[in-house]
Design goal:
Layout (H helix, E strand, L loop, with lengths): L1 H29 L8 E7 L5 H14 L11 E7 L7 H20 L4 E4 L2 H8 L21 E3 L5 E4 L11 H15 L5
Parallel strand pairs: 1-2, 1-3
Antiparallel strand pairs: 3-5, 4-5
């Protein structure tokens, strides 16, 4: 056995390292080594959220939500999508297209259930993603944000997404109940 180990130890060590690397890659791809958020919020605005503002929003949602994925903590993830300025500059146009593709990717993958926006009318007109107060989708020609959002603060509005197809957001039922709680609390701020 000593003789075998002497001649084959590097093969065994390299094989073990390759197995560990493959497990790490596969685990990351399948999400084994990262925390899955309980709630995801798409933030769509001109300026990024400050760390304090993001923490405040996360705390507000965490205080109202439960641990939907049963990992022992309530995790809120804010996906920030910034609007590019309306100019004819080639770089700005590229940035604007990239930002729109990021938002479309979030919408298509059903990542975010909540949408926190500066201009909900623009979001609804461009993506038609905001649900009616009862959670149903508006008619195809209804591109207004009226009745679909509540005022979160002086500049931001909160809305929830509707689903036109069978693909749904993770913990959709729980997020819908959370929306009902938030909507009841802030209904007088509705636009």
């Amino acid at each position: 056995m000593k003789n075998w180990w002497y001649y084959h130890k590097w093969y065994v060590i390299c094989g073990a390292l390759l197995i560990c690397i493959n497990l790490h890659l596969i685990g990351n791809k399948l999400g084994w080594f990262r925390d899955e958020p309980d709630i995801q919020i798409a933030y769509i605005a001109d300026e990024p959220l400050s760390e304090d503002a993001a923490a405040s929003i996360e705390n507000a949602f965490s205080s109202l939500a439960d641990d939907y994925n049963k990992d022992g903590k309530v995790t809120v993830k804010i996906n920030q999508y910034l609007n590019a300025p309306d100019t004819v500059d080639v770089d700005s146009l590229s940035y604007k297209q990239a930002a729109e593709l990021s938002i479309i990717g979030d919408i298509e993958s059903c990542s975010s259930y909540f949408f926190l926006m500066e201009r909900p009318q623009n979001v609804q007109r461009e993506f038609q993603v905001l649900a009616l107060p009862d959670g149903s989708c508006p008619l195809e020609f209804d591109l207004s944000a009226e009745g679909k959002t509540i005022r979160w603060d002086d500049k931001l509005y909160l809305g929830r997404r509707c689903f036109y197809h069978n693909k749904r957001t993770a913990y959709e039922k729980e997020c819908s109940q959370l929306w009902d709680t938030i909507y009841t609390k802030y209904a007088k701020r509705q636009i």
